[in-house]
Amino acid sequence: MADVNNTRLGPGERGVGGLREGEGLSVNGRSGAAYLKDNLREYGMLLALIAIVAFFVILVRAMIGVDFLNPQNITNLFLQNSYVIIMALGMLLVIVAGHIDLSVGSVAAFVGAVAAVLTVNMDWPIYAVIPAGLVVGGIIGAAQGYWIAYWRIPSFIVTLAGMLVFRGLTLWLLGGQNIGPFPNSFQSLSTGFVPDIFGPDRPNYLALVVAVVAAVAILFMGVRSRARNIAHGMEAEPGAIFWIRNGIMAAALVFVGWKLAGFRGIPNVAVSMAVLTILYAFLAESTTLGRRIYAIGGNLKAARLSGINADRLTFFTFVNMGVLAALAGMIVTARLNSATPKAGTGFELDVIAAVFIGGASSAGGSGRIVGAIIGAFIMGVMNNGMSILGIGIDYQQVIKGLVLLAAVIFDVYNKSK
Amino acid sequence: MSVLLEMQSISKTFPGVRALDDVTVQVREGEIHAICGENGAGKSTLMKVLSGVYPHGTYEGVIRFAGQEARFRGIHDSEAAGIVIIHQELALVPLLSIAENIFLGNEQARGGVIDWRETYRLTEGLLAKVGLREAPTKPVGDLGVGKQQLVEIAKALSKNVRLLILDEPTAALQENDSQKLLDLLLELKAQGVTSIIISHKLNEVRRVADRVTVIRDGATVSTLDAHAGEVTEDRIVRDMVGRDMAHRYPERVRNPREVLMEVKGWSAKHPEHMDRDFVRNVSFSVRKGEIVGIAGLMGSGRTEFAMSLFGRSWGKDIRGSVRIGGREVDVSTVPRAIGAGLAYVTEDRKALGLILDEPIVTNISLANLRGVSKSGVLDEAAEQRVATRYKAAMNIRTPNVFQRVVNLSGGNQQKVLLSKLLFTEPQVLILDEPTRGIDVGAKFEIYGIMNKLADEGRGVVMISSEMPELLGMCDRIYVMAEGAFVGELTAAEASQEKIMSLIVREHEAQEHIEMEAAHG
């Protein structure tokens, strides 16, 4: 890069350098409250999740007299929501790229059915079934992504078609019947637990150790990135808020670890979820691939003129979504211990809702993996809590719908301020 | 002449910024009053105060309109009083007809049923008034920008406007449409319509304005009276920037060296009208250290040519060859064009150039993410260093590189866009209308940057609608018309008249060809 420094600058040098209307008013050193107000969206959903959990803790205790956060229920929260979380990772990228995928529920069901046929009817071993299922998911994603990326057919339409097609194919493949049960090896995909290396006795120390290590890692990485931001003159979180937020996260992790230790330890799905979450957060925030996906969602034409191959990236996001839907489908099938024609019905709505509750913009270009995870947990905790309270499926749907609407209204309101 | 509008000591404060500080403007009945000022000087804020977007009570000062104190609570109130603003971005619905647009929200209806005969009758009258010969049923989307502007004015007239405010009305118009619009303003003035015109184009201001109010940094600097001979471009510029500007273009030692890029026989078809070439057999060259201009009216194919050259970003069936540094290069995709050392800075920085919601740092690295990453993993510290370096080099005025681009002024946005493409380390830069919609001070800075780039031995191609700018900056000027290069002038021989006559001659030749074809 040749130097463009020392460019002679004429008239503009004088007073216009001051702040213009609405330009750059944020400066370091404002009060914590003001900061919190400006970044309400960032914290709002985390606070909402905490509030919802607290709400159910109180209500479940008062009405049924049990602890909402008992070890078994916490384990259940992971088992029940793993599929939403896993698919939300892919859906976030799809939505950030400016698209939508309505087919994920049907694709999950179809791949679950394929896995069932391979395992139960054809006796394939699990180490062959899982890769085969993921490949099928990838091919389905590619088939849909091809029309969306290279033929510019709206994703809403392509995946609506996919939703119908793969639901139909699931019915056809299963012949309208359930297929099951599965051998233990396949079931362990969902209901298995990580063995405790510290010995088989309770409590499960591994769960506790892992949680503590993770909590320390979060604190360490938070401190490091905050120091880096400050060094680069970026607006950093005020110290108090930083410590409270990270403190809550760390405490929640240790708490969950401690509870899991009191039951059967870390569920296998929690491991897959955690690994995938870290992987996708890294991909979204720290790689050129992720940056480019945000760019095509933020301004497609500008991204193209910047030399970004938008078609290929769009294609990739759908292939990726297919693979994750396949994984989720196999986990759900393993958990139910049978492949059913109705499996995965309405999953797409839970997943899309989770991503939007988590703050992604329906116009594309913005949204975070962490947000999508929090959104998924909000949906999951509500599902679980309302079921424990015995609230009918009718009211559950109404409440979930209203929460989605409220979250997005909150978002829009925040931006319009 | 009586005073129609008086804005007395208007002040408006936003959190942390005093956008208007004791601004006073007086508009007389039946005059054309121009308001000039750099971007960010407060013109738009002032108009928002006047039209009630910022309602009474959110500002200090008094507005008197037609002899009464006005306390507008919203646009509805100001329109009811007869104040109509036509914004830079036109507010028309492209799929609706001219008549439907004119009476949108003000339908000629009885009990909710539209009286089409009355609607068309009134529309015809209004169109005659603004000199637009089009059928009232024609969809607005089929009209050019110039004609759409006239529809907007007709719409304003349909509301019995007493004060017409035009915000940068000619920004998107080509030369002859601009002239027509200005003529119309003068005609409306003769009919007694008072108007306020906000414009950067000082020659236009000089042509039509009776009086000029200059605003700088949110305060009134001066009110100049054309009839007293006070309105000259130099005087306005001096008041706008707060200093004399003897030289509107920075000095440069012109030192073109060997040929850097050579384009031969470049042609391209319109993606929707494939019957003939839209860009026709263009050949040209740029030397190292040279600034070459491409003059031409809007619609002459300048942008289409540049974008077809830059990775086939426009057009179909593209033919021709490009040599950079003596070697034939492949520019068939944007990454390849960038790799070959070519960069194109778009004229439409908001739609095609920047991701407005992202911060400066993300925008600058976007076209060269490899330069701030290792095996696909971003190095954020390096990315921030790069952005900070450009912020300093380009003098991007903002507290830090984490500001979202949407909040920057036009000039600063343009600098961010330039930085993005400079970070791809191009040898040849094609700058498409690099100073459109930015203020005088920022223009001067952009010119300085262009000179610097040429001094570094790069080739700079400048596309512009503003001929004085081309004449002031370029070593050579190519003239484009009807998709072809119709002339080449050196700095010494070029003049506005020569450029225009080349363009006109080509238009006439084309019409001749079409007539011949029509007559078989």
The parts of chain B where pLDDT drops under 50 for at least 5 residues are none
Secondary-structure-derived class of chain A: mainly alpha
What is CATH's topology name of the largest domain in chain B?
A: Rossmann fold
The main β sheet of chain A shows up as:
none
**What topology, given as strand order, has the largest sheet of chain B?**
6-9-10-3-11-12
Biggest chain pair interface: A-B, 53 and 81 residues
* Average predicted confidence as pLDDT of chain A: 86
Quick one: how many beta strands of chain A? 0
| Number of separate strands of chain B | 24
User: How many domains in all of chain A?
Assistant: 1
Oligomer: heterodimer
- CATH homologous superfamily designation of the largest domain in chain B: P-loop containing nucleotide triphosphate hydrolases
**Segments of chain A where pLDDT lies below 50 for 5+ residues?**
1-29
Radius of gyration of chain A: 23 Å
CATH topology of chain A: ABC transporter involved in vitamin B12 uptake, BtuC
Structure, explained:
The complex is a heterodimer of chains A (417) and B (520). Chain A has helices spanning 32-38, 40-64, 71-96, 104-121, 126-150, 155-174, 184-191, 205-231, 239-261, 268-286, 288-298, 300-305, 310-336, 347-357, 369-388, 393-416. By secondary structure, chain A is an all-alpha fold. Chain A has a single domain, classed as ABC transporter involved in vitamin B12 uptake, BtuC (Orthogonal Bundle). Chain A is globular. Chain A starts with 31 loop residues before the first helix and ends with a helix. Chain B is α/β, with parallel strands linked by helices and 520 residues long. Chain B folds into 2 domains: 3-241, P-loop containing nucleotide triphosphate hydrolases (Rossmann fold), CATH 3.40.50; 259-358 and 407-518, 3-Layer(aba) Sandwich (Rossmann fold). In chain B, the strands form 6 sheets. Chain B has a 6-stranded mixed beta sheet, with helices on both faces. Chain B has a 6-stranded mixed beta sheet with strand order 18-21-22-15-23-24, with helices on both faces. Chain B has a 4-stranded antiparallel beta sheet with strand order 2-1-4-5, covered by helices on one side. In chain B, a hairpin with a 2-residue loop joins strand 1 and strand 2. The longest helix of chain B is centred in the last third of the chain and has 23 residues, at 496-518. The radius of gyration of chain B is 25 Å and the shape is globular. The termini of chain B are far apart. The chains are: A mainly alpha (417), B alpha/beta (520). Chains A and B meet through helix 11 and helix 12 of A and helix 10, helix 11, strand 20, helix 13 and helix 14 of B.
